[in-house]
Amino acid sequence: MAMKIRLARGGSKKRPFYRVVAADSRMPRDGRFIEKLGTYNPLLPKDSEDRVKLDMERVQHWLDQGAQPSDRVSRFLEAAGVLAKKERNNAKKAVPGKKAQERAEEKAAKAAEAAEAAAAPAEE
């Protein structure tokens, strides 16, 4: 059985609240889980102690059993010092999309035409 340590969403619309759970990876996000390991409340300030609460003993147990944490849970565990920090690099984050690149090329072409038009009468 492939185990995951992940978030299960609760709370009402636009008021998210998450349980950190150990669950079979084939179960739905908010579906059946094996054990509740903690909570995460993203509405609280980042420096609040109640924002992320984890039962580290049980988390360590599941990690020893081979459970894989989700990306968000692994960040919580890195902050708590349980996991080693991973190097994350999203190199494409700053690159504009195709349409934005096309608009930039069109704008550059228009500017070049305008510069040529302005320079041509001055030379005559």
From TrEMBL:
Residues 99-110 have a biased composition (Basic and acidic residues). Transmembrane segments: none annotated. InterPro entries: Ribosomal_bS16 (IPR000307), Ribosomal_bS16_dom_sf (IPR023803). Coiled coil: none annotated. GO terms for cellular component: ribosome. The keyword Ribosomal protein applies. Residues 88-124 are annotated as: Disordered. Residues 111-124 have a biased composition (Low complexity). Keywords: Ribonucleoprotein, Ribosomal protein. Belongs to the bacterial ribosomal protein bS16 family. This is Small ribosomal subunit protein bS16. It comes from Aliiroseovarius salicola.
